């Protein structure tokens, strides 16, 4: 199963993504993730959500193969709508969401992490937006929540990555631990939040979102308008296919 939810202890819901080989999600996968996070937040027994992944990395973004197999634009539109739904589910979740990140966190992964309430990461975690190399745009909205404006622009234009240690320096990653300690660290933090009065924490989540200066829903969809424009202009298809061809080279 691509997305699953379990409760390791009272008050804590753990949502896990497991989509081998690299957790690049299909349209259905993005919507499944959105539904899982939303359902966890609606459950009054849930005081906090931990979002994590199995496999080699946290998330590699959208499934480009699915988009390339579609002769039209349905998969592209679905991927954009699915990403928007999943990012919104994390941001709008009724309780705090802790992202536990290991390995690569790329594209849509940055969208999830940028909208999370707290981020913990393993020492091998790297974050980046390869969108410009794929003929697309998106998630600058969320990268801007992790790093200062000018660094975001440099990372975005160059499709470069940034380490968990660097994000810890900027204050957007709460703690950096070994891969072996990641789940336990996220769970310990979740346990501390879950011990609070959930009525107060749920109100706090609404209050903090209400004073947010970044209109995350609108700004992400604005970015996606340019992705559609690049696709209509014929720019994106060649970039995506080049990426897939490079992956298949020995």
TrEMBL record:
InterPro entries: ClpP/crotonase-like_dom_sf, Enoyl-CoA_hydra/iso. SUPFAM superfamilies: ClpP/crotonase. Signal peptide: none annotated. Keywords: Lipid metabolism, Lyase. Gene3D superfamilies: 2-enoyl-CoA Hydratase, Chain A, domain 1. Pfam families: ECH_1. It comes from the Bacteria. Belongs to the enoyl-CoA hydratase/isomerase family. This is Enoyl-CoA hydratase family protein.
């Amino acid at each position: 199963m691509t997305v699953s939810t379990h409760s390791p202890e009272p008050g804590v819901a753990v949502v896990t993504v497991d989509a081998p080989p690299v957790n690049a999600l299909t349209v259905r996968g993005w919507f499944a993730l959105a539904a899982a996070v939303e359902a966890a937040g609606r459950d009054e027994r849930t005081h906090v959500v931990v979002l994590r992944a199995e496999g080699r990395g946290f998330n590699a973004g959208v499934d480009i193969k699915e988009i390339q197999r579609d002769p039209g634009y349905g998969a592209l539109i679905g991927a954009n709508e699915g990403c928007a739904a999943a990012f919104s589910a994390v941001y709008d979740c009724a309780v705090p969401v802790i992202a536990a990140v290991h390995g690569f966190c790329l594209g849509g992964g940055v969208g999830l992490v940028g909208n999370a309430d707290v981020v913990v990461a393993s020492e091998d975690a790297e974050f980046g937006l390869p969108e410009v190399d794929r003929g697309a745009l998106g998630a600058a909205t969320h990268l801007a929540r992790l790093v200062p404006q000018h660094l975001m622009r440099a990372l975005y234009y160059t499709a470069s990555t940034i380490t968990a240690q660097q994000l810890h320096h900027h204050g957007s990653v709460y703690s950096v631990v070994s891969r072996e300690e990641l789940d336990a660290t996220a769970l310990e933090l979740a346990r501390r939040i879950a011990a609070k009065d959930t009525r107060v924490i749920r109100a706090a989540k609404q209050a903090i979102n209400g004073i947010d200066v970044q209109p995350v829903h609108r700004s992400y969809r604005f970015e996606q308008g340019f992705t559609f424009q690049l696709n209509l202009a014929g720019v994106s298809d060649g970039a995506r296919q080049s990426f897939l061809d490079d992956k298949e080279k020995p």
